[in-house]
Amino acid sequence: MLKVGIIGAGRIGKVHLESISYHVKNAVVTAMADPFMNDETRAFIEGFGVEKIYQDYKQIINDPEIDAVLVCSSTDTHAPISIEAINAGKHVFCEKPLANTVDKIQEIADALKAHPEVKFQVGFNRRFDHNFAAVRKAYDEGKIGDAQILKITSRDPQAPPVGYCAASIFLDMTIHDFDMACFLTNSDVEELYVYADALINPSIREYGDFDTAIISLKMANGALAVIDNSRQAMYGYDQRAELFGSKGMVATSNDTLSSAVISTADGVTGEKPLFFFLERYMESFSEEVRQFVAAVENNTETPVGIHAGMQSVKIALAAEKSANEHRAVKLSEID
Amino acid sequence: MLKVGIIGAGRIGKVHLESISYHVKNAVVTAMADPFMNDETRAFIEGFGVEKIYQDYKQIINDPEIDAVLVCSSTDTHAPISIEAINAGKHVFCEKPLANTVDKIQEIADALKAHPEVKFQVGFNRRFDHNFAAVRKAYDEGKIGDAQILKITSRDPQAPPVGYCAASIFLDMTIHDFDMACFLTNSDVEELYVYADALINPSIREYGDFDTAIISLKMANGALAVIDNSRQAMYGYDQRAELFGSKGMVATSNDTLSSAVISTADGVTGEKPLFFFLERYMESFSEEVRQFVAAVENNTETPVGIHAGMQSVKIALAAEKSANEHRAVKLSEID
Amino acid sequence: MLKVGIIGAGRIGKVHLESISYHVKNAVVTAMADPFMNDETRAFIEGFGVEKIYQDYKQIINDPEIDAVLVCSSTDTHAPISIEAINAGKHVFCEKPLANTVDKIQEIADALKAHPEVKFQVGFNRRFDHNFAAVRKAYDEGKIGDAQILKITSRDPQAPPVGYCAASIFLDMTIHDFDMACFLTNSDVEELYVYADALINPSIREYGDFDTAIISLKMANGALAVIDNSRQAMYGYDQRAELFGSKGMVATSNDTLSSAVISTADGVTGEKPLFFFLERYMESFSEEVRQFVAAVENNTETPVGIHAGMQSVKIALAAEKSANEHRAVKLSEID
Amino acid sequence: MLKVGIIGAGRIGKVHLESISYHVKNAVVTAMADPFMNDETRAFIEGFGVEKIYQDYKQIINDPEIDAVLVCSSTDTHAPISIEAINAGKHVFCEKPLANTVDKIQEIADALKAHPEVKFQVGFNRRFDHNFAAVRKAYDEGKIGDAQILKITSRDPQAPPVGYCAASIFLDMTIHDFDMACFLTNSDVEELYVYADALINPSIREYGDFDTAIISLKMANGALAVIDNSRQAMYGYDQRAELFGSKGMVATSNDTLSSAVISTADGVTGEKPLFFFLERYMESFSEEVRQFVAAVENNTETPVGIHAGMQSVKIALAAEKSANEHRAVKLSEID
């Protein structure tokens, strides 16, 4: 039974607490920490039988009974907390993005090199989603041949408040799609070109950010890829992928609450996609932790290591550069 | 070049005129007759280059230049005109139903026996529809194994005026579905049981008729089948079939004007089915005549002979009997 | 926190144990009993923290700490155990069918009448399935108008061994569909007619049973309905419903493991339906118990009471009678 | 009755001959010319009742009885023949692309300016396809709000022989998609960026051409667009579009020969897309000419004028430039 401490009791921290409690058989959450711990959150955590509830995450890192740490704190603390945990010999599962700079991620990589016994996983949960996993499986099984064209559509149901995001759309939202591009083609990215604009809310441009983007990518294995992003799809969370290759294509559509289709004089109408990431990807949050726990137990490689964490951030930084400089940017330019 | 005379210049007669002119390469309509021929109809017919336009159909039957006759007159005249044409040595394509009684159809059969050189085809156009033909093809190719369950959904977009139909729903509308049941399972019907009611317009009951029905059938080859009918589907003409067997299932859905699907805050909406039989089955009207012409040219059997014409009417009469007597009726009871 | 005892530790008993432990917040399983309790089952139950594990179910019924009982034992014991539990003042959730005779179910009804404080629910889990619930919701919201035609397709992926079932296909398998027919049209059944045969394995006829059936029903509210059953669909568990009414239609399709569709030179291929009822309906097993617990907590009516339990068995018995006597059978004939 | 002469009796010339004969009521083909006229082609043309069959197209241009000319000759002759016809006062329908250079198209534009009475239409038939027209219709009706993201997938079922094409993939194949991008967003293109490669057959690179491409476009109205092309989709001709806007999305899927879906132990399999452009777009070839004829008859603007013909070629030339220079290219750079 793996003893887990969760650092950060915001939305994603709570999701992991509930998910591990109900759906991860070989792990138990024994401690949880958050600098802004309040009574409501404390009660929520206690409801799952967690006894050690802290404000200071260091109490988790220093707890010799804890085997593994889930880093669910704010992005800027991902790297330092991960490093502390690694140095304390804890296995680490860290939410994405690992950091907003290459240097900070490199520091995590260095810490891991110094602690080869530590398992490290990045929280790219979509890799464990039933639909995206089916795309990769079809590719791995050779059903579509060599990858030639990948298309990812990723649109949020509603935009965050203007100025809310510290990070750009690329680091905050597209980062998942960048990881998907690598995962689905089983390849790194070599170069990209971005068209981005503020078509939903022009005032976002004042913050140097965008709400609509088309990102073309040249993958290291030769495949071409394109991601289209919008911060606001009125019909809901649109999450699709299609991979085209020398033998055929595999494509996914959106999940819905039910398959009911209503035919009337007005048309033939099915349900909108599941609302947002908690509804759409809930099962994947369990599966990623199950596989993390299995990697610890079996002393095998975790399914999403530091390389994926680094790649995705480099791609996001390259995308920012391309959008701002109106030119193709090679990943090798990013350091 | 087969020279064709069309008897009856109502809707279906005009459909065949246009369809043969544009889409049947080895046939030409040289004559057309209708007792109610008016100027408008005459002009329409002339527009297709037809020179011989009559009120009296006998002028077509007596025309030695004419090879084949399409009987598109009112149902009660189908049998006598067909018999006259057969006796005159014309090949005959007759619209459905051949008649409303077994006796009259038997007279056609007798005439055909006396004129074995004459080709005879019944106008069950749905056999030539791309979707239904694909169901039968899958069955013939063994893809679904032995037929076990057939389901046909057949719903009209709007009911005819009450009292309009001389014939019952079974002879007027379901007759096509009865023929489909035989065609899709490649079998005759042995017995059936009907639940029928007037759920759309109760006043239809005064005419001894129904507007909604579920007809269960036991096919001669052992398969079970069910047809559901409605005179009024608010979303349009609903024409589907599914055949289930020992190896799998083949199922069809409705055709639409386009594949466009619109996703908005209100849902994900596709188009309604094509409006009615002219829109839905237009291509099949050409194909049935093409195959009739080919049978004449090649001196082969037509694809829909007198047996199909007789079976479908017997089934319809058995269905009337079952609905009225509230019991299962065997086809062998109908004479 | 409702304290629950589960009687019967077979497959469905274990499903409820796991489901309640993980997904039903206000209930806890404190006891479980099975006459054939073995070490493996005992270990499984202990894994969920259940302390009271018995061979004799009476220990559960006599336990004053237990609020509610889930009757998951063999069908012939459903009624007597339910009655004992009711008489002991326990709330009862009983698996379907309640019994194979009307008399036994009437005894449960009588016990309930004598204990009006007891909540009683029948395990018709499909009512809580997302797809079927969406059909009923559309109907309740008036989107399809008055119900006119209901179609239910229910096909198992593989037949049980011949002679395995004590009960007929109607009491064992179709019973769920009979309840669905009532649920989806919000009506009782008035009369039915059955065509049934042994098309998959003719030797089933020796046991007086069938493996393929088409059941036509006349609902008390005037709607017509049809259920088609097969014990063996080679493509998997086929569970669909469509309800047609005066304003339109609502229809559901099967659930799959993913939405991935693979297009190759061989065609455009999606996944088969989820394998069987545990995969397909797992979520509904939680939801039905959640609503049972809520009814106890709020002292409201349970969503599936004794009437539904009685109706479904009466319909199944009428279906047996119709199949054997080749005639329409009214529900009023069954006592 | 518009009298039409067709110049060029290759595949597309024959398609127009047949299509006009069968499906365009107010036009008749009275003459056809081809420098390589042979007996087989002559017999084909005569079969449609065309009496004037020439080797020299000038006989058509000089024929005072002919009202309109369809230019279906090889691409390099489109411009000079169109100009001759315009100068002779004939209405002109010219196949795409108008030419491979801006200068030549400008010459056509100049001729048209000198002959304002002449109607001129470019053969962008896809604008008249039922699916693409439905996308534009939904947009025009305001159902999706302001256009933000357009995605076009356009993949051929099989690549032409290497070295066969005189023109690049952009001028030969993508030209249709460029016109679709303008049509569907109702906007010109401002700038584009291309990733292109030879992933199917690397030897195409020796001819300076590509077989796989992702083209990102910035439309003049602010929308972003992306086209993905492949010369070889093993599952057939893949022709889809989706337009996303401030209120929602409209998307189309491929057409198939039938809607039949076969479910077996191997999966749930539907048909592949219709094979290639003749199968897929046949109806659009009639519709574009019907609208050309109507424009002549009613003296209104044709639906696809010289501007669309010029734009599409400019975009194709910009795409070539971008692919070769690895940079974003503005349309304003192309002259």
Question: What would your notes on this structure say?
Answer:
- The structure is a homotetramer of 335-residue chains.
- Chain A has helices at 11-23, 39-46, 58-61, 75-87, 102-114, 130-140, 169-185, 277-298, 306-325; strands spanning 2-7, 27-33, 52-54, 68-71, 91-94, 120-122, 147-155, 189-197, 212-219, 224-230, 238-245, 248-251, 261-264, 267-270, 329-330.
- Chain A has 335 residues and is of the alpha/beta class.
- The first copy, chain A, has two domains: 2-118, Rossmann fold (3-Layer(aba) Sandwich); 127-280 and 312-333, Dihydrodipicolinate Reductase, domain 2.
- In chain A, strands 12-11-7-10-9-8-15 form a seven-stranded mixed β-sheet, with helices on one face.
- In chain A, helix 4 links the parallel strand 4 (68-71) and strand 5.
- The longest helix of chain A has 22 residues, at 277-298.
- In chain A, 57% of the residues are buried.
- The model of chain A has no long low-confidence stretch (mean pLDDT 96).
- The A-B interface holds A 233-235, 263-272 and B 233-235, 263-272.
- Strand 14 of chain A pairs antiparallel with strand 14 (267-270) of chain B, so a sheet runs across the interface.
- CATH topology of the largest domain in chain A, anyone? Dihydrodipicolinate Reductase, domain 2
**What is the CATH first-level class name of the largest domain in chain A?**
Alpha Beta
Task: Look at the structure and give the mean pLDDT of chain A.
Answer: 96
Q: Percent of residues of chain A in beta strands?
A: 15-25%
Strand order of the largest sheet of chain A: 12-11-7-10-9-8-15
Which chains share the greatest interface?
A-D, 38 and 38 residues
- CATH homologous superfamily of the largest domain in chain A, by name? Dihydrodipicolinate Reductase, domain 2
Question: How many helices of chain A in DSSP terms?
Answer: 9
Q: Strand-and-helix sequence of chain A, N→C?
A: EHEHEHEHEHEHEHEEEEEEEHHE
User: What oligomeric assembly is this protein in?
Assistant: homotetramer
- Summed up, the domain count of chain A is 2
Largest sheet of chain A: 7 strands, mixed
> What is the radius of gyration of chain A?
20 Å
Specify the overall morphology of chain A: globular
Low-pLDDT stretches of chain A: none
Name the structural class of chain A.
alpha/beta
Distance between the termini of chain A: 40 Å
What is the correct CATH architecture of the largest domain in chain A? 2-Layer Sandwich
The level of helicity of chain A is: 25-40%
Number of strands of chain A: 15
